Amino acid sequence: MNVLKRKTTQNIRYGESRFKYFLQIRLLVVLLCVGLAYFVYSNWQNWLESLDSKPISAYALVGKTEFTDYADVQDVLLKMGKLKGFWGQDVKAIQERLESLPWVKGAVVRKVWPNRLSIWLTEYMPVAVWNNTEFITKEGTVFQLPMERLKNNTLPYLGGPNYQSLKVLEAWNQIYAGFKAKNLSVKGITIDERGAWQVTLDNDIVLKLGRGEWKSKLERFVTIYPQIEVPEGKRIDYIDLRYAAGAAVGMADK
């Protein structure tokens, strides 16, 4: 009986020894794989660059752009310094630089063998001038664009705090449609920090509406506007509708 116990104990120890040896081998293999992966990762960019024989030196602006031309893209690329080759160049860096142009909404940059770039740009499209120096999209996004690049000079003039941009745009759409139905033309509206509204007609008459609800005030304006008598040599400068009834009319010299 004692002999059998010793053999069993020896077999168990032998099995444990093999298992520990297997774990050590497995751990060593894992460490080698991790080390190899780190080495490849840390040197990957250098290996790619070693495959390049010449830097990227040409690009194509794909698709139609309204405000961006080849000179803009060239200026962005020149500011990045000398580009790397097909394998080594990171296109994400180029994409981020192009998207830094304030009127560019997004950019897609692809490398074309052997040394070219294909660039696709999407731009913000203005529906109105915002605060006289910026522009606004139909989604209410405020962005910058050099005025000389604007081909459409009939955009309305809107204004207010940037966080109110969408609210102002929605009000503009309602007021413009309502006035058009009454054969009146409006060229801009603004709201100030206090929430006071102003509407500017196409003849530069300013309607002061004040804060809060403005629809009934505009309806009152439509009623009294034809009844206003303008003295000779004068013109209507503003119509103040911030009253419960009626309006105050301000005159100016022609």
Question: What are its keywords?
Answer:
5 helices; 254 residues; Rossmann fold; single chain; 3-stranded mixed sheet; 9-stranded mixed sheet; disordered N terminus; alpha/beta; Ubiquitin-like (UB roll)
Can you describe what's shown?
With 254 residues, this protein is α/β, with parallel strands linked by helices. The protein has three domains: 1-50; 58-123, membrane protein fhac (Ubiquitin-like (UB roll), Roll), CATH 3.10.20.310; 128-253, Cell division protein FtsQ/DivIB (Rossmann fold, 3-Layer(aba) Sandwich), CATH 3.40.50.11690. Helix content is 37%, strand content 25%. The strands form two sheets. A nine-stranded mixed sheet has the order 6-5-4-7-8-9-10-11-12, covered by helices on one side. The protein has a three-stranded mixed sheet with strand order 1-3-2. A hairpin with a 5-residue loop joins strand 5 (134-136) and strand 6. The longest helix has 49 residues, at 2-50.
